[in-house]
Structure formats: structure tokens, C-alpha cells
Design a protein that fits this description.
Layout (H helix, E strand, L loop, with lengths): L2 H11 L2 H13 L4 E2 H8 L3 H13 L3 E6 L2 E6 L1 H12 L7 H10 L20
Antiparallel strand pairs: 1-3, 2-3
Length: 125
Amino acid sequence: MEQANAIAVLEALASSLRLRIFRELVRRGSQGLVAGEISATLDIPPTNLSFHLKNLTRAGLLTVEQEGRFQRYRANMPLMLDLVAYLTEECCAGDAAQCEGLRGASRVAPGILPPLARPHVEAEP
């Protein structure tokens, strides 16, 4: 991920309302929600919701698919995981042991964060 992309994603999430929308869509998984369901679930007026959905979609955080008269929104989880990887890829300057200790203190479920780079060890002949 490029720095400019990371900034755009973080800026889009820097709103309590947009963060609530994104987290609700993450919770819904691949099913997603149509705009009206998002509005009703989060009690957001449709005109206000439209502005925020456009912002999140423009940042790449949401995908949208036309379903007849409705638009179904889904969280772009690969992009979010790319952002997490970008933010953590140089954890502890490559000191895997130190970084593992920090990860252990986190509430993040195992397997969510990208794997730590391990020093290359030559196989013995």
C-alpha cells in the first residue's frame, strides 16, 4: 500500500459516523447491506448517509453493487487488511521476538495481523 492510499483510508474513517458504517458492514460480512438497511440499522437519515457512503466508497473502503433499484454495500476487507499490514509491517524494526510480545498484549484475534518477517537462516549441508 502506498502512503497516499493509507492517508485516504484513514481520513475516510476519521468520522464517528463513517466508522460506525464501516464497522457495521464489517460485521455483516459478505452479505453487506443495502443503503436503506444501513440507514434503519444505524438511525441515519438517508440524505446524510448518502454523503458518507460516497466518501467511504471513494476511499475504496466499500464496494457497491446495483441490485435493481437498490445498492448493496460491503466492507472492502482486503483493503483494511492491507492498511493494517502497512501500519505494522516494520514492527519493532524486524525484531520478531519483541514484536511478538507486543502482539500478544493486543486484543487482535490470531491470524489477523500479517506474519512477522523472520531472519533467513541457511540450511546446513
